[in-house]
Design a protein that fits this description.
mainly alpha; globular; membrane; transport; potassium; proton channel activity; Integral membrane protein
């Protein structure tokens, strides 16, 4: 099987996910002449959306460039790709939890929301680690002109470590936990640049 159909399906799933993220924007309740105040109070939704949009967008770039280097797809790789997509589609839920908990101002709820986001992000990185491992273990799937060095293969595991640390730290420090979550998401940008230099 050629990668084209898999990429088209995956692109469609990720496009729908990004659309679902933006659907969380609703017209706020406001008194006449006070719309600006009501809109400003929606800042948690906007921030959570921007972070998740950039996250999913980077994951799409990863996915697109990675599969563009493959010559063929087998059944196992199809199943692994479905696993990757499943984990990514979970992002919408913690995005809403983070936005709602920040708006509430309750520290305990915010910690819970960030930990759930960390868990989803960890699962996403773990699924990419599985994807990397499978393709490296089956060179017949890969374009003969493309090779990935060991440091690139380790990038998903590095992000798993960042999110695992965030899960441990967040119950003790919300600020440190939020920083680690954002650091993990930013790391994907550098990892993507790392990958793009190999293809």
């Amino acid at each position: 099987m050629k990668p084209d159909r898999l990429q088209a399906f995956s692109d469609g799933v990720l496009a729908i996910l990004i659309t679902i993220l933006v659907l969380e924007f609703h017209i706020p309740n406001f008194s006449r002449g006070h719309l600006i105040n009501a809109v400003i109070l929606q800042w948690p939704i906007l921030v959570a959306y921007i972070v998740s949009f950039l996250y999913v967008g980077t994951l799409w770039l990863f996915h697109h460039d990675f599969f563009s280097q493959l010559e063929t797809i087998d059944r196992n790789l199809n199943l692994i790709n479905l696993t990757v997509l499943f984990t990514i589609t979970l992002v919408d839920y913690p995005t809403n939890l983070v936005a709602t908990s920040i708006a509430s101002g309750n520290t305990t709820d915010m910690k819970t929301a960030f930990i759930i986001y960390d868990i989803v992000a960890l699962l996403i990185s773990a699924s990419f680690a599985l994807l990397y491992w499978y393709v490296m273990a089956h060179p017949n799937l890969n374009n003969s002109s493309t090779t990935f060095n060991s440091s690139v293969k380790s990038d998903p595991l590095r992000s798993v470590a960042i999110y695992a640390l965030a899960i441990v730290v967040t119950p003790f420090s919300l600020i440190a936990g939020a920083f680690l979550l954002c650091a993990g998401i930013i790391f994907h940008t550098f990892a993507y640049v790392h990958l793009s230099k190999q293809i």
